[in-house]
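Tokens for NAD(P)/FAD-dependent oxidoreductase. Go.
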Amino acid sequence: MTEKTHSSPPAADVDVLIVGAGISGIGAAGHLASRRPGTRFTILEARESIGGTWDLFRYPGIRSDSDMSTFGYGFKPWTHRKAIADGHLILDYLQQTVADKRLARHIRFGHRVTGAEFSTAERRWTVTAERTDTGEHATFTARFLLLGTGYYDHGAGFTPKFAGVEDFRGRVVHPQHWPEDLDYTGKQVLVIGSGATAVTLIPAMAGRAGHVTMLQRSPGYIFSLPSEDVVAGVLRKVLGPRRAHKLVRRKNIWLTRSMYKLCRRAPKPARRLLIARVRRELPRHFDVDTHFTPSYAPWDQRLCVVPDGDLFKALSSGRASVVTDRIARFTEAGILLESGRELTADIIVTATGLNMSPFGKVRLRVDGLPVDLSDTTAYKAMMLSGVPNLVFALGYTNLSWTLKVDLVWEHFCRLLDHMDSHGYDTVTPVLHDPAMKRVPFMNLSAGYVERGIGAFPRAGTRGPWTVEMAYEKDVERLRDGPVADAALHFTGARRGR
């Protein structure tokens, strides 16, 4: 359990105010504690515990879909034998990080940030948070505001409007709100969806349920990986955890990036390779063409990873099955498909996706004027045009989330060093070329992205305004590149530019 007692309450006026105690917010705090031990910071967390996604989601089998050597922090080696880790192991890792870096004393739980306003005259943010226990409001001030809120709406998942859902006599559950009292032992379970959540749920539930059926409208690409990294285990024994961590991260980054580049540069051969791997995992009679042959190219949507082929093992054993069809309506006994077939169920799980929400729904203002996020352009995918002293972190869609987050917080620490050495108080990205074409922040064709990306900041098409989903390019500009840039406007009490 995360320590929640403090020798003194976290300060209400700080150098850096971090919103969110999930993997991004804890990462920011860890970098500040290591790189700038004199910096005063506070973390505001809406819930009563750390972990964000990894504490919120409680559905069976929840796990990472990236290897933990890259999904973990660069400053804290992942030492567990499992490379594709269960959710409780990831939560343990985050709690250990909080303990190692002595971050608990900086966290204020039960504070949901609702609004933040920057004053140019005062050179500070004033942040309003609602106390989740009393409904009262608390105010904090800070030089910098860091948003580690991710891009999912933690309040509600996405469920399409299904005709006749009220007629179903069983139980309908969304994975984001998994009931603690749900007993599916021996029950007929129907899981709607084919994404990462669905392919996690099905093998996890198949051991106890009577039968689990995955109902998908269309198939996606599914890739089997070993849950344990043998090379990593050997390197840890020979070199020790810290030195092995660096080598394993490099290896896994190279492998993942190579796979991605192959898929994008040679989609047809990559498609054949991915589908051939699925055929080897399933019985010879299995209809792979119908159920595991997508209509789109690899990485138009995110690939789903299954550890040790657990989904394919559940299908091969007969404990689970897959149906590819469209839903006509819910019935009393289950779901009627457009083909005329009816699937009966005791429990229906709507693994139909999540809702995107920019920056935890925090309302931003600058000098009294509201900030329309969709009107802003992302600078180095970490700051917003026209908004002073604000930094955010949104991870990769084609690689481990935390690789990008680590680079952003590293660059932020370098930015603070640069500003302090020059006597600057504020920094604002300025888009000097308003005619530059702007594009969506993410280019995935996934449904959740298409539904929600319009509310997010836009990306540019050149210079520091591009959003790179390429680790090697971000290393070049965030870790190795200079902080000073013609697009950044610095001001200070004694000097300005």
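The mean pLDDT is 93.
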